[in-house]
Design a protein that fits this description.
Length: about 475
């Protein structure tokens, strides 16, 4: 009776259970089930034995949470096989050709298995052709840019491999997406890793093994170098977020550049100090003649004198090309306004002189026949009657600026003299027209047929050369 009284008093008092024991609700003691409940409660209360301390290490703590307290949060749903369309587009960061293949797909706690053979779904056998995708530290996201198919999502592993998964059913795709995402979260937490996230986003970023400090899933803070945050954001596709210090640095650079530009001396000052000299090649004909105080550039006059002196009888004069390196050397000396002596031994090859002369005319900003005169000369050369054609061409030449007119007269009188030695130099009016046609004139905008324009260019130069005595009045003293 005393034992019954003690038992009844024990029922009336609340049971004090040790921390960590499972608390069970005690019902009324009128049935045998009540006694069973009481016995269970008393057994669980025998917790005076020392409990094993739970390790506070991050890795052990996360594993404990997964196994006990957080099982409902991190335990993924295992999908035991279904045919999905799979395309591997990257292998450890190396791009691969996208080939869709129907694969028997199995999801485990921390892996995704792709099999061509459905019989291999149970486990990864030695020698099997199973593609294993490790989900720890991976990234799962929907994508519409990588494929034109619908219901496509991408898995990027922590080693840089990329997989595209697709299925026609929207519900099926969502089911696999959610299950794989839960598996990624669970395996990443269980491994103690901290997956990289995009700034201001909940999406994970892949761990790129090529980036320093991100080659493993270790949570060691020493390996997480914040210097590479900008490059990581670039891989994630998010816009770069510049800090206040970056903006200050940019403003400082801009201010220094502005000060440098404002303090930079003008072109005129540099020319007066002799640091920059006016060039001959590429200079406008009018500007060059004004600077030299002549109506014919001095370089043109010097070259023509040299050819008249020792090149009239040379085979293929103006047709044969000289050594380009020597021509460029001559051009450099002329641009630097150094003393030029074409009788020097280094300019012994007369084809170098003629090559430099042709280069001078080709590099004029506006050709010897100005742009606005191109079409009038074409219309004049189409005139069938010879006298009318001569008068039309002569009138156009007289309308040219004085430097163009005088330079043209000197050049064609020289070429007319070259024709006088045609038996020795084997040059004809047609050959000279082919050489000097595109050298002395070209349209400002080549909107028409280039071949047709070239024909007119050659014909105009050839006609002026033949009728040079009449056009330039060369017989008059």
């Amino acid at each position: 009776m005393a034992g019954f009284t003690n038992l009844q008093s024990a029922k009336q008092q609340p049971l004090v259970q040790p921390q960590g024991a499972v608390q069970m609700r005690i019902k009324s003691s009128q049935t045998s089930g009540d006694r069973l409940s009481q016995s269970k409660s008393m057994v669980l209360q025998e917790s005076d034995l020392p409990q094993k301390p739970i390790s506070r290490h991050r890795r052990n703590q996360s594993q404990h949470n997964v196994a006990v307290a957080g099982a409902a949060l991190f335990e993924p749903v295992e999908l035991k096989g279904e045919h999905l369309n799979v395309a591997k587009i990257s292998d450890s960061g190396k791009k691969q050709r996208k080939n869709w293949t129907s694969m028997w797909t199995v999801l485990t706690l921390d892996q995704l298995l792709f099999n061509k053979d459905r019989q291999q779904e149970s486990a990864q056998k030695p020698g099997s052709k199973t593609d294993v995708v490790q989900l720890c530290g991976a990234v799962v996201e929907w994508t519409t840019e990588k494929s034109s198919r619908k219901n496509v999502f991408q898995i990027t592993t922590n080693t840089g491999s990329e997989y595209l998964l697709q299925v026609e059913s929207n519900s099926t795709a969502s089911k696999w997406y959610d299950a794989i995402r839960k598996a990624v979260n669970s395996s990443t937490k269980a491994d103690g890793g901290f997956p990289l996230r995009r700034s201001n986003s909940t999406e994970y970023l892949p761990r790129h093994s090529s980036l320093p400090g991100y080659g493993s899933a270790s949570p060691n803070p020493k390996q997480r170098n914040p210097v590479h945050r900008r490059s990581i954001n670039m891989f994630g596709g998010s816009k770069l977020k510049h800090s206040t210090s970056d903006s200050a640095d940019k403003n400082g650079v801009k201010n220094r550049l502005k000060k440098f530009i404002t303090r930079r001396p003008s072109m005129k000052t540099l020319q007066e100090k002799g640091l920059i000299k006016d060039r001959v090649f590429g200079c406008h004909l009018l500007t060059l003649c004004e600077r030299e105080g002549t109506t014919v550039p001095k370089f043109v006059q010097t070259c023509l004198d040299a050819v008249n002196k020792r090149g009239l009888e040379v085979d293929g004069i103006y047709r044969v090309s000289g050594n380009l390196a020597t021509i460029q050397k001559l051009r450099f000396m002329v641009d630097q306004e150094e003393d030029l002596d074409l009788d020097h031994s280094q300019w012994e090859d007369i084809h170098v002189v003629t090559g430099a002369l042709k280069m001078f005319f080709r590099e004029l900003p506006e050709p010897l026949f100005p742009f606005r005169f191109f079409q009038p000369f074409v219309e004049a050369i189409k005139i069938k009657e010879s006298k009318h054609k001569i008068q039309a061409v002569k009138k156009l030449i007289q309308e040219l600026p004085r430097p163009n007119q005088d330079t043209m007269k000197l050049l064609f009188s020289h070429l007319h003299r070259v024709l006088a030695f045609s038996r020795k130099n084997l040059m004809s009016t047609q050959g000279i027209g082919i050489v000097f046609g595109p050298t002395l004139m070209w349209p400002e905008l080549d909107a028409g047929n280039m071949a047709v324009n070239m024909v007119y260019q050659n014909q105009i130069v050839e006609f002026i050369l033949i009728e040079s005595r009449e056009i330039f009045n060369l017989d008059r003293k």
